Amino acid sequence: MSYNLAQVHEAVSAANPDRPAIITADGALTYQDLTDQSRQFAHALVQRGLGCNRERASLAGHESGQDHLAIYLHNGPEYVVSMLGSFKARVAPFNVNYRYVAEELLYLLDNSSARAIVFHDAFAPTLAQVLPSLPDVKLLVQVPDGSGNGLLDGAVRYDDFLAEGSTDPISLDWSPDDLYILYTGGTTGMPKGVLWRQHDIFIGAMGGRPFGKAEPIPSLEAIVEASINGGVRMMSVAPLMHGAAQWATFNAFTGGNTIVFVRDPTRLDPADVWATVERESVLSLQIVGDAMGRPLVDELERNSYNLSGLLALVSGGAALNSSIKERFLEIAPHAIVLDAVGSSETGAQMGHTSAKGSTSTGTFDPGPETSVVSADLSHELTAGSDETGWLAQRGHVPLGYLGDAAKTAATFPVIGGIRFAVPGDRANWRADGVIELLGRDSVTINSGGEKIYAEEVEQALAHHPAVYDVIVVGRPSERWGSEVVAVVQLAEGASASDEELLAEAERHVARYKLPKAFVYRDALQRSPAGKADYRWAKATALEA
Predict the structure, then answer these.
(1) In principle, which of 62, 80, 127, 266 could form an S-S bond with 400, CB 3.0–4.6 Å?
(2) How does residue 360 score in pLDDT terms, banded at 50, 70 and 90?
(3) Same domain as 471, residue 421
(4) Which residue from 148, 83, 145 is spatially nearest to 116, judged by alpha carbons?
(5) Which residues are 490's β-sheet partners?
(6) Within its chain, how far is the Cα of 283 from the centroid?
(7) Is residue 537 domain-shared with residue 430, that is, in the same domain?
(8) Which stretches does DSSP call E strand in 323-406?
(9) Residue 329, in any domain of the structure
């Protein structure tokens, strides 16, 4: 069976038309509502001449034959409708980081060859600065948000755009080769558009393979049958511009479940998150690492919430420190914490489950297509190998990077006749089958001839109760070549000396990995999804 995301959504929706698909503070959209609105969006795109221009068979891995639509929105039903409507029109939507300044936004929209943009009022001033340099943009759909910014010249209001389209089924030949595009975050380099066949991303991360199973779901009929038993409520705090949130959302829809959004999607309000979890009896809550986990647990320790319905706290996209897990499980001892590892270039790869009395961070059970390949990319390693290699994915992997044949070849090498995705994380594959994740090679620090993984040192320092947030980077050193520097945000009202932080870190990592210097800031810069901005941290360390 080959799958298309539009096809799956239509089938699940037809089987569960009256079930809530999305719940917001303002009300609910049923699966039928979501189908109707996404069809309207699709018909309006097709009537504007947007869609698929060249089929996959005639294209290289780094090429696209579809028109591209930029989604420049905060979380909300409009984001989901825009994605689904684009898929149904055979237009390829992609994510836009809404914190980008004009120069960054121009790069992204130009690199992506965007033909259409859906955006909130709040982003109209920034978009207006770059549109004169983007002559290929032919459609602007503007979503009201109460920010007070007026309609851009040539833009159409979102509701008016929907009204242009019909709720009738779409008479297009959807293909498993239709694209799903996910732009990388750009926190360690320039953003790159990862091109996935919809079939591959569906199997790899969006519900096509049941959790904990090796084999994909065998048929569309089996998906529909399973969805009838769905209906649980799931929630992601991460913005939908982040792959983990998109994957969580589409996993929910594949299972016939309900996605819940917080009242204010423009910021992380821990009280609002937990009040929503309590009110809607949310079963699973998805976050991204310590940047979200720490303030959420702080709020749980300040105020009481009924979390009896919450069974899983899921962290994807960044590690969640074991001390934060322990604090959460003290409050919700019936729940589990699931660390999920994946990337834009691999989809979901592996996970680790923590329960009360048994927490750790950094080791994972691999998924059925997860592997480790040798440092020189010459062969696939086996469990128990003494060699540190690259975390890799085989099987359902992307086609390549949009417009970049060279980077496509480098990141998706063929090893032993098999094509792998190797985005740049170092790992050890232990004899017991567990994979020890060391960290992204692009932020690895070579100090005195030793490789030091930034994430490992960050986790060690984060154990200290005074550390609210930390990013570790290297900076030039005459003695060491590169020295480890920790950029630290202390908890409000807390204090700690360099020596106290070093003493805590020394309990968790070898002495040669300890920071040679600390830089303290009132706040650290992260992406909207909570990922560390290593470029900012390195500049901060150099300035200090």
Answers:
(1) 62
(2) confident
(3) no
(4) 83
(5) 467
(6) 20
(7) no
(8) 336-343, 347-354, 363-366, 370-373, 389-394, 400-401
(9) no
